[in-house]
Amino acid sequence: MTIKPEMTASDIASAVAGGRMSAIDPTEAALARIKRHDTTLNSFTDVTAERARARALAIDADIAAGKKVGPLAGVPFAVKSLFDVAGLSTRAGSKINRDLAPAKRDATLIERMEAAGAVLVGALNMGEYAYDFTGENVHDGPSRNPHDTTRMTGGSSGGSGSAVGGALVPLALGSDTNGSIRVPASFCGIFGLKPTYGRLSRARSFPFVASLDHLGPFARSVTDLALAYDVMQGPDADDGACTTRGVEPAAPLLGESIAGLRVAIAGGHFQKNVFPEAVEAVSRVAKALGATRVIDVPEASRARAAAYVITTTEGASLHLDRLRRRPNDFDPAVRDRLIAGAMVPAPLVDRAQKFRRWYRAQLAEIFRSVDVLLAPATPCTAPKLGQVNFNLDGVELPVRANIGIHTQPISFIGLPVVAVPVPLEPLPIGVQIIAAPWREDVALRVAYALEQMGVASAPSPKGI
To answer: What is the CATH number of the domain that holds 140?
Structure first.
C-alpha cells in the first residue's frame, strides 16, 4: 500500500490493523520524510529512530500473533521537547536543561498514545521554556512555516505546528499556556485542540505556568485530532489538576448534527487589532454556521493583562534559581521578561487572581445562552521570521507581544478550544471554536462540520 505524506492517522491505523500495511512502513516513511525535509523546516530537535522502529516491529509482531491493537496502531507522532521522553534530556527549548540527566520515564500522554498503538519518532523544537509566540529559538534556530519557510510557525509549540503542517507526521503534541497550540495551528494551517484546564494530564512535562498550562494535540483532520484526544483522556494522580474527570469520548460524536447549537461571534476585544484575513476567516466560519449574533465578552482586554501578570510572576518563580546561576544562558528576551515578573508587586498579582475568578463567572453566564463562541486565533497570517512590528491601520504594534492577543483571554480561565484552519490565499489562518468547560465534544463537532463543509481544512505544504 502506497503511503502518501498526507495520509491521515485514522487511515494509517485502519490499514495497519487490517493487515493492508505493516506498522514499520509508516514509521520508515515518516523517518524518511523527516530526513528529507527537516533540514529546511527545523521542527525536530531529536529523532528517536531506533525506538520508533522497535515499537513498530512490536506492533507488527502483535498483529501477527492475533493480538488486538489500539486505535492509533502504527501512527507516527512527535512531541514538543518539554515532554519527558525516556532516554532524552527534557530540554524545553533551553540551553540550560540540556545538562539535565535523561528522563527515566515518558510523560503520561506519551504512554497513553503508545498504549493506543502510536509510534513516537522524536522531540520537537519550541520556544525557550514555552515563553514565546514566534517559534524562533535562539539555541536551536527557528522552526519554519511549511507554507512559506521565510515565515514564523508561531510558538511556543512551533516545531509541532511545522511537523504536522509539513506532513512530516500526522500527529504531534504540544502545550498551550497563553495560546501555544492555537497560534502554531493558525500559522501552519492545521487543527489544534487546547482542552479544558485539567482534562489531559501534564505529568512528566516541564512546566511554565502551573495554573495556566494545558497539553493537547495537533492534526491535519478533526477525526485524527479527536482520536488522539480520546486516547489521552483519563484521571492521573501524578497531575493534581487532572484527577476529577473520567473519559468522555468525543470521536464517536463527531458526525452528530450541530443543528440547534447556539453559535455566536465574540465581539469587543476580539474584533479589535485584526487584519483583514482574520476578519475574513471568522466571517466564513460564521456564515457557514449561520451565526449572526455578536456577544461582547466583558473585560477581555483586562483578562489579557491579568494573564500577563500571572504568567510572568509564576514563570519567574519557577526559574529564579536558573536566573541567579545562569542568566547568560537564557534567551535575553525570555530572561528579561522573567526578571520583570520577579519584581511585580504581590498586591498586583492578588488583584489579577481575584479578577480571574470574576471573569470566569462572566464567561459561565455567557455560556448559559450560547454553546460556541467564534474568535480569531491570531490577528494575522504568519509574519516574516525576525519581524519585530506589524502595521495595522497606520499603528506599529510589536509582533511578539500581540500574536496571542485573542488566545490569552480564553486560556486564562481554561476553556476548551479547537483552532480550525481556514485555507485563505496565500496563507492559511485559524479561527477559535470556543466551548464551555468540559465540552470539547461540542467544539470538535463544530470543527468537524466545518471540515465537512469545506470551510476548514489543512492545505498541502507549499514551502517544501
So the answer is: 3.90.1300.10
